[in-house]
């Protein structure tokens, strides 16, 4: 099962990006998944820059959980839930480079 850290956004256009994530809910969901329980994760609407208040995805437990995101290693408590951590460093691709 793979899930993006982005689904745990409160509201993206904030001054401090780290505070834009609902880390408590992320910790709760990952903890429940690791215990074999299904969870409901929020849906983030990037067009309106907010969570869809009434909508959730049900995520079922799995033997492998892949959590990805640009700040997924920022919080020590989130890092402590991980059995393995992989960081991929890539070259920045600018939009004009992709159009060539």
Automatic annotation (TrEMBL):
GO terms for molecular function: ATP binding; kinase activity. Residues 19-91 form the Phosphoribulokinase/uridine kinase domain. Keywords: Kinase, Transferase. It comes from the Eukaryota. Pfam families: PRK. This is Uridine kinase. It comes from Thalictrum thalictroides (Rue-anemone).
